[in-house]
Structure formats: structure tokens, C-alpha cells
Amino acid sequence: MRFEEELVELLPRLRRFARGLARDASDADDLCQAAIERALKSQEQWQQGTRLDSWMYRITRNLWIDDRRATGRRGVHTPIDEAATQVAGDGAAEVEAGALRGDVDGAMARLPGEQREVVMLVLVEGYAYREAAEILEVPIGTVTSRLARGRETLMHLLGEAA
Amino acid sequence: MSFDPATVAAFVDGELDDLTARRIEREATSDPALAAEIARHRALKAQLTAHYAPVIDEAVPERLRALLAPSDKVDASLAGRREAKRMRFAPIHWGAIAASLALGLALGLKPWMPPASVTEANGTMIAAGPLAAALDTQLASSQSTNTAVRIGLSFEDKAGRYCRSFESRSLDGIGCRDDGGWHLERTMQGQAGTEYRQASSGELAAAAASMMAGDPLDAAAERQARDKGWARR
Q1: Helices B32-57 and B18-28: crossing angle, nearest 10°?
Q2: Model pTM?
Q3: Domains of chain A
Q4: Which stretch of DSSP H or E encloses residue B125?
Q5: Distant-in-sequence, close-in-space partners of B185: CB < 8 Å, separation ≥ 6
Q6: What pLDDT shows up at residue B27?
Q7: What is the mean predicted confidence (pLDDT) over B10-35?
Q8: Contact: B152, A47; criterion CB under 8 Å
Q9: Whole-number pLDDT of residue A100
Q10: Which residues in chain A are contacts of B45 at CB distance < 8 A?
Q11: For A105, which residue in chain B has the nearest alpha carbon?
């Protein structure tokens, strides 16, 4: 199958992953667009016989990180990101349990990026810990600890009995 | 509850070995706290999955599909390249190889380097030098982008031998591990640095597919086979 055809088949899943990272639908599609362009340009770096989906997820995630860093440097902070830094981690416990019941977008927005990407890969996209670790290029232990923290925060904000 | 939270999470994520998973399942039937913890994790996963599921069914925006749409012009030239490639991709041309060996023209990966990459034994082409070293040791999953020999697929052929496809500057092909080393079962001219790279990979993959019994080795199996010296199972 042509490289491009395989990419087309991946698009729906890639859009879902990007939606989880970028949250806003058009930001997410901008991210997908940049990832596809990058993939087409660096097509020869993809090793035949290895998984194209992992490779695309890695490109998408790295572009997302680059974009967040660039945004940070420009001094642009969306209010929601400030809320994220304040509430995520230790501060999350101070928010009333179940405060965001039913509001998955709001709860995900309060996760630090490094937890949100692991939550998306494992809980939504269904990757094994090992696969997620390969995509993110971090040790498995990092995946499991970020996942555990992300989960606790989400369960707390969304309320225990969903 | 005798299971720590990480183990319960790993259970819900399907990451536990069967034995431990069965123990948790059994214990959950008599341990309400454990059962509740499992339910809590499952509920979160279900809620997240349900929340993002509709994205999959959305129509992919035209601006994304357009980037990947086939263009007639490109297709024609691609087909042309494939055809040209097929002409070159044939069983080993013994005459030509014998001639080049006789002339002392090493089929080296780097012609200016002393060790030749191919030798001949009992009428068979065998990998030598840097090519043999790459086939012996290099893992497709962890090779650098600018390595002299790029390993593609590793697989078992129908005779039970381990075979590996490779690409390099001057020679692409498939080597199968047998008595005395890596027998080169397929060879074609290397395409490094040309626009044909992708077509070449495709041809090799197709040849590998016709030779393999079962699926290609994944990263773990590849490593395991290497560590056992590519001995037949």
C-alpha cells in the first residue's frame, strides 16, 4: 500500500489523538496538518516494517510540544493553561471532588501536558505501556507514574462514580 | 486489599500476566474494596473513550485529505519507477558477479574501504565485512538514521532460516543465515541518495514477503534471534 494511503487510514485516529492534546478542534487539525506535512517530507526516515502509526503519533506529539514551547516563549498564555499549572499536581486535591463532573475537556485541560499525552495514548488510543513509552521516547516507569498521577487527578475532578 | 494501586491500574489496562490477572479477578469477587477500585478505573476509561470516540466518525477535513490525495502525475512517474526497478530486480546474475569478483571489484558498501562486503563460497554469495557485521548485530529497531547499512525486515523463511533485508550505498538485498554466514538470496543495486529510495524499499519488502513464513519479527523477537546468533529455532 502506498505510504499516503496508509496515512489516510490513520487520519481518524490521529485526529482523535490531536484533539486530546490540543483540545480545540481546529487547533487539533492544524496539528494534524503539520504532522502530515512533516511525515511526507521525512518519509525516508520511516523504516519499512516498523509501525507507521507509532511513528505518526511521535511526530504529532513532538510538533505539539514544539508548538507549546514556542507559545510559551512568546509569552502567550491561555487562561486555561494557567489554570492547569495551578491546579495540576498537588493543587488538584484542593478542588472539590467531582467539581468537573461530566466535563472531560475541562478535566483534561487541567492535566499537565506530559500526563495528558500518556492518558490519551494508553486510555483512549489503547497503546500498551511499552508502546506508549516508545512513542514518547521515555522509560516505561515514566509512563506508568505519569499515567497514575493523571488518572488520580481525572478521577478526582470528574467524580468517583462516573 | 492486597494489590497496590499500580497493579490494579495495570490490570484494567490489560498489562498484567495471565496468572496475576486471574488472581485479581478471583480476589475481587470477595473483596468489595478491590472490586470498587477496579470499577472506578474502568469507569474513567469508559468515560474518556466515549468522550473522544465521536472524533473517529467525523468526516476528515478536506484540507487534510488533500495533502495525501493521489495525483495522476505523481502516480504515473511512480509506476514508471517501479517498472524500471523491477527490470533491475532479478535473481542474482552469476555471470556478472563472477566477472566482478574476478576483476577484483569489491561490491563494497564503501568502495574506498578495504574490507569487501561480499565474498563467494561454493558458488554462493556470502556477506562479509561491514555488511556481515550489520546483519549479525544491527537491530532495525535501534539503528541510527545515517548508518552505512540499513536493516529492513527480519523474518524466518520457509526453510526456517532467519533472513534480513538490508539497504546500503551500493547494494540492497536479502541475506539468510545458513551454514557459513549470510547467504545473499536477493541482491539489487543500492539506491542511496537517489529519489528511488522508497520504491527500492517497496521492492525489497515485496521480495521479503514472498519468502517469509509467518510474520516479520517484531523488535523483541529480532533482539532475541540476534542474541541467539540467528540459530534456527
Answers
A1: 120
A2: 0.56
A3: 1-76 (1.10.1740.10), 78-162 (1.10.10.10)
A4: strand B124-127
A5: B163, B173, B174, B175, B176, B211
A6: 93
A7: 93
A8: yes
A9: 81
A10: 123
A11: B51
